[in-house]
Amino acid sequence: MRINLASVLVDDQAKALRFYTEVLGFVKKHDVPLGEHRWLTVVSPQDPDGTELVLEPSSHPAVQPFKEALVADGIPYTSFAVDDVKAEYERLRGLGVRFTQEPADMGPVTTAVLDDTCGNLLQIAHQAG
Fold first, then answer.
1. What is the pTM of this model?
2. How many Cα atoms occupy the beta-carbon half-sphere of 119 within 13 Å?
3. Cα–chain-centroid distance for residue 108?
4. Residues 25, 80: Cα–Cα separation, whole Å
5. In DSSP terms, which residues pair with 28 in a beta bridge?
């Protein structure tokens, strides 16, 4: 068994696609119209046949209170691996990304938390070794 898809719940799929591709650096894999929404996935450019991230519409009534509670408590919705958290932090800040946690060394892991502009906090992380 392996992970094929993971989802992030976004307020606006078009805005999310721009942020996740133009800012974070993912590449679009699928973009299929489905009524008012789309089946929209992105992948890492280093692994185009790997796990797809679905930019899932957050239209279900339970989603907004859930997302608001996570953000209010400073909890990231998900985490992405990077080679160098501090360098990625500087690159993203240069693109205007707002961080809620600057890079922090936590033993063998360094993390930072950013706002994806679509209602989520995301963690970037690197594990040493």
1. 0.95
2. 19
3. 22
4. 12
5. 42
DSSP state of 50: S
Tokens 């996570």, residue?
70
The Cα 121–Cα 51 span in angstroms is 20
- Give the tens place of pLDDT for each residue, 56-70: 999 999 999 999 999
Backbone φ, ψ for residue 62 (5° rounding): -80, -20
pLDDT band at 45 (very low <50, low <70, confident <90, very high): very high
112's enclosing H/E stretch is strand 109-115
Q: Which residue carries 């280093």 as its tokens?
A: 46
β-pairing, 5-10 vs 52-57, is parallel
110 CB-near residues (< 8 Å, 6+ apart)? 85, 86, 103, 104, 125, 126, 128
The pLDDT score that the predictor gives to residue 100 is 98
Tokens of 56: 């899932």
* Cα–Cα distance for residue pair 82/29, rounded to 1 Å: 20
